[in-house]
Amino acid sequence: LPFLLRYTDYHLFGTSSIHNNPPPNESRCNICDYEHQDVETPDTFLPLSPCFHWVHYHCFVWWISRIDERRDKCPVCGVTLFHFDEINATTLAARSNIDRENGEVPMYYDHDAKQLVHDDNSQYEVDCASITDHVAWYFQCELRLQTDQSHPPYLDLLKVFDAVLGRLQETGRPRGKWLSYGTLMGERLWDTLVLIKMMRWLEENAKEVVGSQGWVELEGKHQQLQ
C-alpha cells in the first residue's frame, strides 16, 4: 500500500483525465451524499483507488483527518486505501484549509445505517438503532421466533447476545465517540447497552420468553455487567 501523500498525488490526482466525470451510478459523493456539482464551493470529484467509489476531494481530506479507525478505508466498501500517517494527514488538511481542531464537522453518509449523520449525538442514535435492528433480525430471521408462540422452546439468550455483539462488531459498531471503547469499562458500557435493548425488545415482542430459564440467565449477565 502507498503512503498517504503518494496515494493522494499519484492514485487520486493521477486519474485527472476522468475527474468530474463520474459514471451515472456514482454521481453522488460517497461521503457527503451531495451530487458532485451541488456544492457551494467547486471541488474536484474523483474516484478512490482501487475501488472506484467517487468522492469530493475536500470530503476525502476531511474523512482522513478524523480521529476514526476507518479513516484509511473507503467509506463504502471498507477496503484499505493507504498507509495512514498523522503528519501527512495534517499536511493535507492544511493544504485544503481544513481546521482539524475547530472546523465545523460536515455531515457524511453512513452506508450501514443508510442515512446522513454529522455529530456524535446523531451517531449515537444511529448506533442505538443499529442495535435494535440487529436484535430484531436475529430473533425473527435466524431463530424464526414467532411473537404469538404460547410455549416457546428454550432459547440460549446468552448465545444470542454474543451473536448480536459479533454482528454489530462486523459492521463497525459502535461509531459514536460516547460508545466507542478502548478500555474494559468502555466495552462493558457497550455490552450493557446492547443487553438492555435486547431485553427490552423481548419484553415488547416476545413476552413468552420473559421469565424463562434463558431470561434468568440473561438477567444474571446484566447484573454481572453492572
Automatic annotation (TrEMBL):
<dbReference type="InterPro" id="IPR013083">
    <property type="entry name" value="Znf_RING/FYVE/PHD"/>
</dbReference>
<keyword id="KW-0479">Metal-binding</keyword>
<dbReference type="GO" id="GO:0008270">
    <property type="term" value="F:zinc ion binding"/>
</dbReference>
<keyword id="KW-0863">Zinc-finger</keyword>
<feature type="domain" description="RING-type">
    <location>
        <begin position="29"/>
        <end position="77"/>
    </location>
</feature>
<dbReference type="InterPro" id="IPR001841">
    <property type="entry name" value="Znf_RING"/>
</dbReference>
<keyword id="KW-0862">Zinc</keyword>
<protein>
    <recommendedName>
        <fullName>RING-type domain-containing protein</fullName>
    </recommendedName>
</protein>
